[in-house]
Structures are given as C-alpha cells and as structure tokens.
Amino acid sequence: MSLTRQDVEKVALLAKLKFDDDQLDRMTDHMIQIVEYVEKLSELNTQDVEPMAHALDIYNALAEDEPRPGLTREAALGNAPKSDEEYFRVPAVLGE
Amino acid sequence: MNETPYEIVIGLEVHVQLKTNTKLFCRCSTKFGNPPNTQTCPVCLGLPGALPVMNKKAYFLGMKTALALNCSIPKFTKWDRKNYFYPDLPKGYQTSQFDLPMSEEGYLDIKSTNDEFEPRRVRIIRAHLEEDAGKSIHDEAAGKGDSRIDLNRTGTPLLEIVSYPDMRNAAEAKTYMQELRLLLTYLDVSDCNMQEGSLRCDANVNLHIPADNGVIATPIVEIKNMNSFRSVERGIAYEAKRQYNVWQETGKVLGELPKQTRGWDDSAQVTRAQREKEESADYRYFPCPDLVPVIVTDQQIEEVGRDIGELPAALRERLETEFGLTTYTSDVIVNQGRGLVDYFLELAEASGDNKLAGNWVQGEVLRILNEQEISIDTFKLSAAQLAEMLKLIQSGDLDSSKAKDVLAVMLDSGKSAAEIVKELGIEKVDEGDLEDLCKMLVERNPRVVDDVRGGNEKAVGALIGQAKKENPNVNPGQVRQICLNIINDI
Amino acid sequence: MSIINKTATEQLALLQSREITSVALTQAYLDRINQVDPAVGAFLRVESDTALTQAAEVDRKREAGESLGKLAGLPIAIKDILCTQNTPTTCGSKMLENFVPPYNATVVEKLFSADAVILGRTNMDEFAMGSSTENSAYHPTQNPWDTSRIPGGSSGGAAACIAADMAPLSIGTDTGGSIRQPAALCGCVGLKPTYGRVSRYGLIAFASSLDQIGPLARTVEDTALLMEVLAGHDSLDSTSVDTPVPPYSETVHQPLQNLRLGVVEQHFGKGIDPEIEGAVKQAIATYQSLGATIKNLEMPHADYGIATYYIIAPCEASSNLARYDGAHYGYRADQAEVAAELAEDGSDEGPLVRMYRKTRSEGFGSEVQRRIMLGTYALSEGYYDAFYLKALKVRRLIRQDYDNAFEQVDLIIGPVTANPAFVKGEKTSDPMTMYLEDLYTVTANLAGVAGISLPCGLTKNGLPIGLQLQAAAFQEEKLLRAAQMFQHATDFHLRRPELL
Ligand SMILES: [Zn+2]
Questions:
Q1: What is the pTM of this model?
Q2: Which of B31, B281, B286, C268 is deepest in the core (most CB within 10 A)?
C-alpha cells in the first residue's frame, strides 16, 4: 500500500507531532521505505497463529488493596513545567 | 403516557467508581475531597519508568457486580490501552479493556412504580474495568487562562456498564439508573454518589420515526454531563425533541452524520454540541504490555457469586409472597436499601405481625427518616423497641390512634413503649368499666337511641364524643360498637 | 598494572581484604574518566561528589564491621535511563533535560543495597532508540577502539566506559540488541536477561514487552557478579517473574558437560563480514575442543525478526512516549511562541493541542519521532490487523522456532552483528540500514529469551568481534557458565584498546 504525504500528516496529528514541509517529505520517504520492508511479513501464513503480546505467558499479577504512601504535593508538582501551589497548569483546551 | 410521533432508542454507558481503598493500578488512596494533587505517586502521575500493578479487590468487586447483573465471566481477560491526549490523562492513554472484557451479556429488569411503562428487561452488553481520569478545571473565560489539573482521581477504579439500546423513553432510562444504583448499593461495591461523580451516566440516544416504508432512524447522539437522575430523564427527553425538530428541518438520518457528542447543561436545561476533536476518534487500542492477563477459576467465580446476597428484585418478591406485603410497600422498603429491609425483617420477626411491621416501616419510620434526613443506620429506635410497641397495639393495650404519639416520645426519651403508655395515662380502659360507661350514656340519651333504631347509625357518634369527655383513653371504635350492641339489645 | 585494569571480581577481593579502599578505587576511576572520557564521551554526567561520598560510607561500614552488600565499594556506571531519586535522569533526550525523578528504579535500589558506588550516567541513543548512540540529544559516544567509529547502541556509553576502563561494571538495557550489540562492538561482555528476570520498575520504557535491564562488564565472571544483584522478582513490576535467582557468581566457574550448541544457518547468510564469520566459526571450534557438540538448527522465521520488531517496538513506543507532552513534567514549548504560531498560521487548533505538538516536535529527536510515527500509523484504524496484529502472530512463530531449537540444544551460538563498528555518520541518513544492525539480536527480545555477547576476536583493523550465545528463558546460569568456559580457554576479553 502506498503511504501518502497526506496520510503522514494525519498520523502526525494523531501522534501530536508537527512537521514543516521538508520534514514531512523526509518522514514520508522514510516511512514508505520502512513500511515496504515490514510488509514482508505478509509472505507468512499466520491464519491459525495466536498473537503474542507478551514475552512470557504469565498471569494474575495482583496487589492487595492496601494504601501505601505516595508523593507529597511538592514532589508531585516538582517537575511540572508550570504549576501553582496546588495544581498543574496547562494551556486552555479551546482557543478564543 | 404522552404520545409522540417517534420512539426513542436509548442505551446507557454507566461509570461506577468501585469502593476500594486504593487505585486500580497503584496504591494511592481513592478518598474523595482531599486537597488537589495530594493523592498521587509515580504510577498515577504517569512518570517515566513507573509501572502498574492491578488491584485485586477492584477486579473482584467488578466481578461481583457483573454477576449480579447476570453477566457471564470469561475465564481470561486482559488490559488494553486507549490512546488519546488530554491533560487529565497523564500517561497519554487510559488503561481499559477492549476486546476481551471481564464480563459480558447480562441484564437488569426494571419496572415502573407508577405505570409509566411496562416492566422491561434491559440487556447489558458488557461491564469492564478501567481507570478514571483526573480533573481539569477550566478557566471561566475559555481560552484566556490556563486550565488547572488535579490528578487525585487519576487511576480510581471504574466499572463501565454498557447496556444495549433497550430503553424506549426517558422514564425508563431514569428507572434503569435508579435500579442499577440500588443494586450497586446492595452489593456495597460503590458509594454511588452522583454529585461526587462516583456514579456517572452517558446516554446514546436516537429516534425511530415510523414512515411509509418502514422506520427512519435519526443519527445517534451521545449525551454527557448528566449528574442526577432528574437530569438523565430531562436530558434524554430534551434530546429526543431536539432530534425530532432537527430531523424535520434537515431530514438527516443515521449514517449521514458522524456520531455527535452533546453535553447536558443543567442550568439551561438543554443539550449543547461539544466541540468536535481535530481528528476523528482513533484510540489505537492495543494490549497493555505492562499488565498481564487475568485468569479466573470456576471456583473463584462461585465464591464471588455466593458473596452477592439477596438482591432487590428477589427481596421485593420475597416481601410480597413470604411476608404478604403489598407490591407498593415492598417496593418502598426495598428501594430504601438493605438497611431498611433488615430493619423490617427484624421488626416482623420480633412483632410477629408482618403486615403491621410493613405498614409501620413504610409509613411512620420512613416519614421520620425523611424528616430527619437520616438513614436507618442512625435511627434511634431499634427494631426490638418498636416491636414492643407493635405488640401493645396487637394486644389492644395501646390504641393505634395513639401509637404515633408514643413513638415520638420513645424517640425523644429512649423509654420503652410500655413506660410511655403508663406515663401518658393512655392505658387501655377496663372492659367492665367501658360497658358501664356505655350503658350510662345510652340511658342518658334516649333521642340518640331513637335515631339509631330509626336507621341512622351515625347518630351514635354523639355518644362517642361524650365518652371521650368522661375518659380520654377510651377507644372510639370500641365505644361505638358497645353502644350499638346495647341499643340493638333494647 | 593499575588497579583499574583489574576485573571487578579481583577488585572486590582487594576491597574485602582491605588492600584498597573504595575511595581510592573510585578516585582511580574518576581520574581515568577525566583523562579519557573527553575523547570517548561515554558519560552524560559524572557524579564525582556523590560517588566519593558513597565510597567513603562503604569504607566506613567496612571499617566498623557492619554488614555489606555484594558489590560493596565497587564503582558502577548506569545508563541514563533508570530513574534515580533527586538525580537528573534524561534518557538521552532533550525532553527530559531537567527531569529529576522523585523515586528510584528497583534496580537502583538494589545497587544501593548492594553498596555499589555510582560513578555517573552513561550516554545512550535517545529513549534507547538506535544502534550507534548517535541519537543522543547531548553528544555522540566514540568507540574506544577507534574514535572515528560508533560504539554501538543504544547502550553505547555503557559499553564504551567498560572498554575504556572508566568503570568495572555498568548497567545497560536491551530492547532489540542494545546491550549485546554495543558490547560486541566495544569488546566487552553484555548480558540480556530473560524477559521478567530483572525488574523494569523505574526503567524509562521504550517497548515494554521487549525491554530488559542487564549487566555489562569486562569478563563473564564480573557479569555474573552483577547479574546476581540485578535479578529477582519485584512486586512493582507485573511482568517480573517470581523464580529463584541462582548464585551466578558461584556457579559461573563450573563448566557444562555435554554442551549442545545450535547453529542457525541464516546467521551466516549474505551480508556477514567474512572476518566476523571466521571469528565466530573459530569460537564454535573452540567449544568443540571443549567437548561441545554442534547441531544445525532450522529457525525458519529468523529473517522476519527485524520486520516484526520494527512494528511491535514502535507501536509500544508510540504509546509509551505519549506521556511526554509538556503537561506534567519535562520539556514544554514556550507558551508565547505557541500563541504566536497559532496567530500566524490561523489554525483552529487550540492552544493546548498546539502546545503538545510543538513540545513533542522540539523535545524529541528525529529517530524518536520516526518511531512514534511508525507506531501510531501501525496501530491506527485500518492498519492494525495488517501490521500490529500480524507482527504479534509472527512473534509467536519466532518464539516457536526458539522452543523447537531449545528442545534440541542447550544454547544457540552465532554472531552478534554482521559487521564490526561502522564509521560515525555512515548510516544516519538511512534508517533501514541502521535497523538491520539488530538482525541477529532482535529475535531474543521478541521471544523473551536470554542472550549474551562476549568478545571472540579482533578484525585486521583492530575492531572487536562479538560472539552471541542464546539460552531458553531463565537459563542465564547456563549462559554464563558456557560463556565462562570460552573466556577460560581464550584471552580475547583481556585485549584493551590503545586509547590516548
Ligand atoms: Zn498513585
């Protein structure tokens, strides 16, 4: 399948990235190249193969419902690019 | 029921905060109302390198609820990531369940208490676990200032219960919510506080409009922000009318418009379109590599099932058949929650009179609870104490017309019913004394005797009045009966 | 011979017999770093003050007769990807330039309780994405054997600091070969443990189902020593496995009897450098001389490893790296610039979304952006089945190849890379050729099995050649014992680059 510049632009929006024209051209080229390569998987018949999302077949890692101390607010907000004494601060969702 | 030229088709997605001490994937407290950003850790802040570990209790509370909703529990369930960017979602994805939810295919039966609709079975598509997001507080003047983010709630366990579009009017949707809330309360799996957001509801609504060549369906709209039972009812009712008007104007039908999201504005009593996202929703679900699947055994499912206890529908049935209560009375008692049912059961047992117990619980006890705005847990009078009073009524030692006064004094003073009866001087009048009093009154009032014998039984009322003057403790019914007997024997 | 030329195991003995102090040892390494790291660039940050304080504390404890951990007084370098409380952790990215974690990775906790002395943080490809350490946002790392060449990656700093004697032990991470490939190119030992053997808690994720932390050292013996400290179950990592940790450092000297080695035909296919092929075949012959039997293995899906890996890893990465959006920590684009940009291009994008996009485009380097794009694309509607789901299925086939192989042999033996270290800049413009660097290593990550890289020769140009051994899940002990047999019989691990 051929990946277009428009497709790449759409993916960039989903991924919350932004490219200028040159970057977009380059990204499109690279992605086409890589996608062409990985499409070699279609050579394989995988009809009855169980997908493998985890490296190991392990189950039921469950923790007891017992509270443990977390972070102070100071520590929680400590790395925030912007905050007040109580909250993280981010730009408004909507424009004017 | 008001007739409309259309049928409303409603499916509800209900989010229930489960009653755990800690969050779904970390051990931070889930307590409501603490100062912002004081209940976080590296995991729920989504800090680099932090990893989730699933809360066992949350899973089993979810299973208990699902079983109570008659869902089947698959042996294998897994976790998926729902990817989207929002500041109250610090990881950039919500951990949820996509293609293999922890439960599926159940139902909840609902019925109307005032004949608004026929009893109905609302089928459940699935109930799955997921983590809650934090809270964004937006500036009043949108776009002017920053939004403030509180991540205390981030990661609180939610059970999302998704119904089939089986409801056909707003009252059904409201009743479904109420019945679901009642069930959750009986299961003790959630606080179910809609104001605090521990029970939330989104509705998918569209219309089926009869037409010459079948039925026309309008585009589906998802309504959000309905924070009370009343707003569920009003939001859906409003949206139905709005969709009908829009259809009449535009003629747009299902499939011609993308699914729209509208928010219920409770102050304006309207739904408003929410701004469309830049990209169409593409959540790129995939299995969460940081969490391992859960496998349960039949034995575990059975154990949880045994822990469910009697549910509202079964209790209503039992109060009617086994205890002889009316549908209305059993509804009222059961709908108040397990506490009042237990109170009733204890009272019925101790008093030996199911109907009397039912009437008192449904009547006076509930009236006082409402008046005092308290629950049965904090009601001062134990069932045993009240039973004592009911026994006095049964034996005739306490006149039922006086019983409410006695109950009031019991509540105030904490004294026993017998003590109060004595103190108030409202003991029952001796049978012999009563006969003598009635004989005297009949002799003293020949005109009343004539009237009664002439067919006007009501005339005997004058004798009751006089009897009360002589002795305020007399039972008016008894006086009436004895006097009539004497007159008839003359 | 300087103290820093000794192995960690030897140093530990000297510390225990009080022939040297940890302060002296630590100072010797700090001096060495001062001397050679300007040319190598293995470290992002050297933590001299805290290292000497920790060393002094270990010396004090030893003096006072207090109980000491297994690595007491030994210096160690840590790849800058493990969160350390109140210590900057950048992951080689501008995005985390000012990030100071409020918590410790489990492995860091383990190193503290083992009384190790942390020398500093080593350089890496940004978010562990790369095979040359050229993708570091800060500076490249040079191969100590030839500073015009790359050290491999992503744990390039971790391998280079061992090769240049700037640390006796170091910690790396391996998602598709990121420990083994730089270990091979720098001529040291690097172990990628079984998935689930070492806790990932506090390891800044690249691809969660593939990432593993592992040790790098000069010798197999030292590797075993460090592995013993790193391994073990952690209740904070759901994918960590609760299975006993053998005393690797004790058993490592026990040779394996009747060792059955498997050779995979595709490992010697076209593209492999003849010198590498020769060295690896020579190593196989060495094993035969030690009593091992060799079996040719069919691993029919080995050639699909790279394609599978370059779908799965970017998919997971696209989600794992979504958290770097400027909202709660890390880099955020300038708010005034965001507003100006929005005003200029008249987009109806809100300030929040534009902040996200500008932050991520400025904060991530091009390779990271490329992988986020690939992963986002492969998971998006309409492509999920063809790419992601397909890759998960092929992953299963690759795993089955391994299962079949390990029914027949104890270990798989082969090369780590097809070529020795390449010249800096040689592959930066062509991502696909760079990706093929991982050809022989990715399958172990996909299958979750263990692998080790150890030196088995030098090219005519004096560049190290790596030998790879792979074992079934949780067979690290076997891997280490077999590797030690080789080092016992050869002296490739004793060669040093002539640096400065
Ligand atoms: Zn938390």
A1: 0.92
A2: B286
